[in-house]
Input
Amino acid sequence: MTRAPEDQPLTSDELAERKMRFLFSLRSRGVTDARVLTAMEKVDRGLFVRGTFADRAYEDMPLPIACGQTISQPSVVGLMTQALQVNPRDTVLEVGTGSGYQAAILAQLARRVYTVDRYRRLVREASGLFLQLDLANITAIAADGSFGLPDQAPFDRIIVTAAAEDPPGPLLAQLKPGGIMVVPVGQSDTVQSLIKVVRTERGFDYEELRPVRFVPLVEGLGAE
Output
């Protein structure tokens, strides 16, 4: 759906129609958890998409953002969040802040969200949006997310928004017993699977959820 020009804000009827279409699109693609749908209704994706693609913010498609990264399509964000099964008392680690959209949704569901990105510019811009939205339970950090955040570990939930060849060992080690990690895994950008990992007393249980396509998880800090 096309956004209205800045000097022509959406009417209440247009806003209601946009939300209805957005939520219908999510449900039709398998996002059925009521708490997740409510969280996604509260967070305006349009705030997280700037520039050329701003008028496509409410379509179910990934879009380019700064630093050669992407904002995931809403249905994938919803399915990953749903698989994470976040509880209100959980502390969540997100690897790959990107636009900040996923973290903003997690903030509606969890007690505390730590989000890490290798690009300082993305962390800075996302932090500005979190402040604007009064999301005081998010801490955004510029760091190498492939190593997690050992100082804040362990985590109840971990979500990775970039694809690794295998679930990263340091992140698995920072997952609490009974905790859940959702991560895209694949050796190329054309063959990736979304994996749900549950830490048990015996080790880790893995469940393949669906094919996906994400930017690769890269070690080190970015140039920006």
Notes: Residues 12-212 form a domain with the Rossmann fold fold (CATH 3.40.50.150).
